[in-house]
Amino acid sequence: MYPTLLINSLTLLTLTILLTPIILPFLFKNFKNTPQVTTRAVKTAFLISLAPTTAFIYSGVESVACHWEWKFIMNFKIPLSLKMDQYSMTFLPIALFVTWSILQFAMWYMASEPYVTKFFTYLLTFLVAMLLLTTANNMFLLFVGWEGVGIMSFLLIGWWQGRADANTAALQAVIYNRIGDIGLILSMAWLASTFNTWEIQQAVHPHQTPILPLMGLILAAAGKSAQFGLHPWLPAAMEGPTPVSALLHSSTMVVAGIFLLIRMHPLLATNQTALTACLCLGALSTLFAATCALTQNDIKKIIAFSTSSQLGLMMVTIGLNLPQLAFLHISTHAFFKAMLFLCSGSIIHNLNGEQDIRKMGGLQKMLPVTTSCLTIGNLALMGTPFLAGFYSKDLIIESLNTSYLNTWALLLTLMATAFTATYSIRMTILVQAGQTRIPPMVSMNENNPLITAPLTRLALGSITAGMIITSFITPTKTPPMTMPLITKTAAILMTILGIVLALELSNMTHTLTHPKPNPLMNFSSALGYFNPLVHRFFSKNLLEKGQNIALHLIDLSWLKKMGPEGLAELQVAASKAATSMHTGLIKAYLGSFALSILVMILMTH
Amino acid sequence: MNPYATSIMTFSLILGTTITISSNHWVLAWTGLEINTLAIIPLIAKSHHPRAVEAATKYFLTQAAASALVLFSSMTNAWVTGQWDITQMNHPTSCLLLTAAIAIKLGLVPFHFWFPEVLQGSPLMTALLLSTLMKFPPLTLLLLTSKSLDPALLTAMALASTALGGWMGLNQTQTRKILAFSSISHLGWIAIILVYSPKLALLTFYLYTIMTSAVFLALNKIKALNLSMIMTSWTKTPVLNATLMLVLLSLAGLPPLTGFMPKWLIIQELTKQEMTPAAMAIAMLSLLSLFFYLRLAYHSTITLPPNSSNHMKQWYTSKTPSTPTAVLASLSILLLPLSPMMHAIV
Fold first, then answer.
1. Which ipTM was obtained for this model?
2. Least CA distance to B170: which residue of chain A?
3. What are the extents of the domains in chain A?
């Protein structure tokens, strides 16, 4: 039986159900769009999306493409083409599951928000754009989705517009994303001019792909997925509400860059330079982010840097020429990262807005469900055997260790694995364990099912998702089967090293010695001094250049000096010179007459 | 001045001009030029003011030298070709000397130095005569010999005249000197087209005469010898000032006033003769004189001097009507639509 029609129709049904909260108010006058409606729509869409995914897995089909052409004017047809292959079919239910949980949580978290319906509509629009990006079969739709998630990210980060920090963070996000967009548009232009198409399947180069479009794609991914150099927007994006951080900046939007590289993988695979660039960029990003996370005191910032570090790890996997493994890490990472953010949201709201982990502690007894889920999430993040993160992360480290690649990248990634464990354990200990440091008059309450249901659901996902996904997806590249024992256990050993380090350091806090100012600690907590150096330099240069060109060059020089004022000066000079000739002495005049006549005669003969 | 003396001078001027323009023989032409020179000297030095006497002296010296040069050039031509006919000026050196001599008489660069000072020293009416009537006989001689003249020399002198008239006029506040340099500029326009179309040169000269006479007569009415006097004359003769502005803009060559006609036709003729760079140059150099015409027009009409408000309109003005001023001003403003007829008549 051909499952094409089934998969096609059910996926389109899922997408249409998602759009109902936005479209129905225009069709029916008395349709009230409330958060409950939106959450229910996403839940329905999730349940329905399981059907095409199951059909897809069961039938073993490679990919199904659904192609419309929107005939705009005479010769200009806009192709709308959706591709349902293993990536988009796996991503669809996962994204919908995570979004459903986040929306349910947001019903509690944003309950006191006056414009809560608009908030949910924004989240829904973002989700639609993201799904458009993942199911796009051509660069046109991908670009539409890309820009869509960028805009929604801007609107959602700056949700609390009255807060100056939020506006600055939103602006940072837009500018850094835009720099990445330059790379994407460059690649799109190159694709259009070389292959005469924007279809991704047709973009296959017989020999080595030139480096230019690949650098464009890597730049786009670096911008969207916060690799080193274009990373500051991700920690700054924590200014947005926690549901936004959970949805956009952990599970879905930030993986768009990596997803782009996964889609364009056939182009990338032919060029070893591009792969090495991905590898080194990813290794640098992961270590830098992990180092910065070590000394952060804001719980959301720790999780943001953790996201950044995991994105670097995904980039490393792309650099290893293993796109499927990167996608696996995307899928498993979505679960536990969203859960970590939701836990932090629950903690923050219960502590009346306290985000500093130095002011938390001993929450295990007060918020049992939340902190248990926090622990599960952290363990999954560290790659504890047989939780979700293990299936992807351990495979990545094993492939890293058994590949012929840059040693420096390998070392950085291993160090980052250790640091991951360190900051996760630090966060866990400071938030949950020990004596509590919260202000006394705080009443905590997590009895609301709107909190516990999403958290437990995501916890279930964090535990089982790895196993489920790997059971049903056939790997396209052979995983490494045999390796020395030390290589096999490298990941777990680094993690244990990190845990031991964290426990040892937290023991030191009991000894009450005054901490000395330490350059490494300063480097880490100042986020590598990147922000003050780069932000000031570039904006100042740009503004200065603008002033020079617009004011000095154009206004003063061309429009004043070259035009009226310069001309007037010349005439004044000529006038003065001529006046000084007219002395009034008749002898001089008559003499000049004689001289002129002489010159005239001599010149003509 | 004594009425007998005035009538003798005037009659001599008319006689001298008539003799020159109707002569066939070089000596007769020279005679007319000399009579003109001698007749106007007393008119310049009428007021016996040192500056007027100096102006008269400068005028006499330069004009005498010029007349001698005219005679010399005609003599060398007669020596070589054996005839004294004005239109048969065939010898090139004679032509060159004649061109130089007439340039001194007219006031073309580089022989123009005497002109502003003479004009500054003479009364306004005599200045009018010097600018218009006294240019007519030398111009006639050039017109009669135009086919033997050197075009390159004339073009060079014309461009230099327009340029120098423009640059020097920018730096003046005395109206007579300004009008002297405007005269030098216009002579440049006349000289550049002389070889290619003598009729057009004559037309330019006629229109220039009309416009300059209108300006001089208007300035004579308000006794304006410098810019500040023009500025404060609007209370006494408001309409005349407004008309003066239009006549000055006509001198500058702005359409739709009369002064546009000669410039337009000259540029057209020059372009037909493949002398486009020269046409462009002379047109651009006229922009310099436009500036000081505009300054004069601005001062006569547009700015208000710091009079107190009860001096705004005087109750007593000398309202002697002056027909020539009116007629000449009207002609210099409104003659452009008649350009086909003018072009055909001349």
1. 0.90
2. A575
3. 1-513, 514-562
